[in-house]
């Protein structure tokens, strides 16, 4: 599944989460720490992965999760979410169009009762 990470979505997440760190919202601040443009919040990306998976599997719920970020995800990038089912664990790989891995993680899922 592909998802463009827009500046508007990051602004909305920043407002709701109260994480208004400049590297997420301001190109100059992001450039000062070495990024070409603002970066997405890690928790936004993790929550998006969970939401995308659950939208496709509405009979399940997530009982635990883990994610490790390899690189920052730049705003206005297209994130590619790949889900691989291994019993009751869902392996998640998030890449960008160039093939670079942004994050690796897993969810433990259960059927809704």
UniProtKB/TrEMBL annotation:
<dbReference type="InterPro" id="IPR050965">
    <property type="entry name" value="UPF0336/Enoyl-CoA_hydratase"/>
</dbReference>
<feature type="domain" description="MaoC-like">
    <location>
        <begin position="4"/>
        <end position="84"/>
    </location>
</feature>
<dbReference type="InterPro" id="IPR029069">
    <property type="entry name" value="HotDog_dom_sf"/>
</dbReference>
<dbReference type="Pfam" id="PF01575">
    <property type="entry name" value="MaoC_dehydratas"/>
</dbReference>
<dbReference type="GO" id="GO:0019171">
    <property type="term" value="F:(3R)-hydroxyacyl-[acyl-carrier-protein] dehydratase activity"/>
</dbReference>
<protein>
    <recommendedName>
        <fullName>MaoC-like domain-containing protein</fullName>
    </recommendedName>
</protein>
<dbReference type="InterPro" id="IPR002539">
    <property type="entry name" value="MaoC-like_dom"/>
</dbReference>
<dbReference type="GO" id="GO:0006633">
    <property type="term" value="P:fatty acid biosynthetic process"/>
</dbReference>
